[in-house]
Each structure stands twice: as C-alpha cells, then as structure tokens.
Amino acid sequence: MMNGKPKGKVPSLIGSTLGTPRRVLVEKKSKCKRCNEVIEAGQNCAAIPQLGGSFHPLRRYCEECFKGILQKTQDNLDELKKI
Fold first, then answer.
1. What does the pLDDT read at residue 52?
2. What is the pTM of this model?
C-alpha cells in the first residue's frame, strides 16, 4: 500500500540511464524512490542502478512501483514492435 502519490511519470527501462534491475535484501529501513513508502529491513525490493560516473547508486522501489515500471517498459516494447 502506498503512503503517497508516486513522483513524476513512470520510468521505463528502455533508452534511459538505468542499469539492470535486481532483487536485493534491504539491510536497513529505506524508502521507495517513487512513492516514499517505507521498506523495512529484511524485506526484498527491486533495486535499479543509476549508470554514469564511477559509482552506481541503487535506487530502491517497492513492489507496486516496480510493477508500474515493468508495465511501462512492456508498453514501450509493444510500441517498438509496431515500427
């Protein structure tokens, strides 16, 4: 359940500066990058690295926001298939 409204438009994994998503175990309490929902320590979440530079910080996303990102990516792939 989201505590707040997600910020901005839903990102896509296509054509951006995002790296390969991965599942990570949260070691200390964290917040979702989009909706600021608290992700408790010990939970799994999706983490997407921000590429560029020598350090690649992981941006953590709750399950609902990550599902939205995956759906946006699928929509973009469907649009590319029409070309």
1. 74
2. 0.76
Q: Domain range holding 70? A: 22-81
Place of tokens 């929509």: 75
Tell me, yes or no, whether 47 lies in a domain. yes
Are residues 35 and 65 in contact, defined by beta-carbon separation less than 8 angstroms? yes
The per-residue b/e assignment along 24-51, b for 16 or more CB within 10 angstroms, e otherwise, is: eebeeebebbbbebebeeeeebbbbbee
Q: 46 by DSSP, 3-state: which?
A: strand
Domain-located, residue 7:
no
Note the pLDDT of residue 68: 94
The residue among 53 and 26 whose pLDDT is bigger is 26
